[in-house]
Amino acid sequence: MSGALVAAWLHLAASRIAAERMHLTDLDAAIGDGDHGINLDRGFAALAVRLGAGDGPTEGAGPLLAFAGRTISGTVGGASGALYGRALQRAAAAVEVGPDTAGTTVARIAAALRAAVDGIAALGRSRPGEKTMLDALVPAVAALEAAAVAGARLSDALARMADAADAGALATTPLVATKGRASYLGERSIGHLDPGAASSALLLRALADVASGA
Ligand code: ADP
Ligand code: MG
Q1: What is the CATH number of the domain that holds 69?
Q2: Ligand 2 centroid, distance to 195 Cα (angstroms)
Q3: Protein residue with least CA distance to atom 5, ligand 1
Q4: Who lines ligand 1 at CB under 6 A?
Q5: pLDDT one-digit tens code per residue, 113-148
Q6: What percent of the chain has pLDDT over 90?
Q7: How far apart are the first and last CA of the chain?
Q8: Could you list the residue range(s) of the whole structural domain that residue 108 is in?
Q9: What is the rounded CA–CA span in Å between residue 138 and residue 130?
Q10: What is the pLDDT of residues 187-201, one digit of tens each?
Q11: How far apart are CA 49 and CA 45, in angstroms?
Q12: How many domains does the chain have?
């Protein structure tokens, strides 16, 4: 995975989150405390500014992901700041393992996403089916791993990953939340899309779009 791909992804993610800030916040207002879009926009905007100003690493996927993880942990706040921060740090560690030539790009991104998702599950003590970001991320990493095994091209593999994340996010609507703030609502959380699942799907779609040049 190239540093250029990661940098382009982080910048596109920041602009998509800024555009979806109110939507993500409205989703969180329904079943949480209404700050998810605000939280993420604060962190990703800060990240984009720091990268643009040359305050972060200028190359290398691992150093860029680690810098992003530190910045997101330090600026986002809320549950999602800690969880996405940890995810980015885990992805950074995963891409640092082995020479750049080990495995295909798809397999290397799949391994990084697997490490990120495992990091969220460990920190959040959560698993799919609890109406969280993991309901988007776990099917997404499974789709990406299947695409890697099938030898799919990078852009196709990442599109399948993003499609699986979208479907997983939509499928949170009928679930009862059992983790995070939304769990305080119990059955009243039914009928609402989980904001963290929506933002995870957005972040993975941005990665797919960067890889396909969209
Ligand atoms: P907060 O709940 O602290 O206000 P945010 O609103 O930024 O934080 O993020 C809420 C999102 O975080 C939820 O929609 C959910 O997807 C995710 N989340 C919360 N707790 C957990 C957890 N234990 N495991 C995984 N994801 C979680
Ligand atoms: Mg919130």
Answers
A1: 1.25.40.340
A2: 8
A3: 36
A4: 28, 32-33, 35-36, 39, 78-80, 83, 120, 124, 126, 132-134, 179-181, 194-197
A5: 999 999 999 999 999 999 999 999 999 999 999 999
A6: 91
A7: 18
A8: 3-212
A9: 12
A10: 999 999 999 999 999
A11: 6
A12: 1
